Amino acid sequence: xARPSKLASMSVEALLQLRDDIGSVLSRKAGQLQTQLAALxxxxxTAKKAVxxxxxxxxxxxxxxxxxRNPKNRSETWAGRGAMPRWMAAEIKKGKKREDFAIxxxxxxxxxxxxxxxxxxxxxxxxxxxxxxxxxx
Length: 137
Known about the structure:
Blueprint: H1 4-9, H2 12-42, H3 47-50, E1 68-69, E2 77-78, H4 86-94, H5 105-115, H6 126-136
Antiparallel strand pairs: 1-2
């Protein structure tokens, strides 16, 4: 490699020639690396296969229906994930059980059923034709 003192003493034409030579060597090396990467890709090796373990649960980060509710403040709920809320820890310390705060599943199902909107059918489907015929009678 040329030392800085030698570079300073070189002429402009020599420096330009050196720059062109460096560019051609770099492009040749880049081409070699790309062919090596292409060969690795054709061999069936992928980055996904290199990872040894899966990336966690599919449910991670998703909202979950609450399982427990604070009877003193109905807006405070807990889904049973993560750290136990302070209100529940305080009540358990007083002697209550976790089941005392459980939200009944039948009430949760009824609430979800009310929240669901009916699905819209396509205009050309047989079901839509049947409903339109029934409504016209």
